[in-house]
Specification:
Blueprint: E1 6-9, H1 18-26, E2 32-35, E3 55-57, H2 70-87
């Protein structure tokens, strides 16, 4: 990454080597980071990331959308899958544990 780059991770924490990231931030090899997920959650109280001025930390909430009805849509999805489960129908959006998601 170039020195002006900002790393954004809202996906999976383990895809970023946090110790390497901390070193890159301290040494200004990158400009900053915006992190919603971490290698281990919750992020340890003594993590160097907490005190860095060039790091934005959010509380694992990047799944929230701009749609004002996201809570209602989430509940509707759950209810639909519940009905599918009770009826013996295939569920939507199953987690594939072998694939890691």
């Amino acid at each position: 990454m170039k020195p002006s780059a900002i790393l954004v991770n809202v996906g999976r924490g383990p895809v970023v080597d946090e110790s390497a990231l901390v070193r890159a931030l301290i040494n200004r090899r990158i400009a900053g980071a915006a992190l919603d997920v971490f290698e281990r959650e919750p992020l340890a109280n003594d993590s160097a990331l907490w005190g860095m001025e060039n790091v934005l930390i959010s509380p694992h909430c990047a799944d929230r959308t701009g749609d004002p009805d996201w809570v209602q849509l989430t509940v509707q999805f759950f209810v639909e899958n519940f009905h599918r489960y009770r009826s013996g129908e295939p569920l939507q959006n199953l987690v594939d544990k072998r694939a890691g998601y």
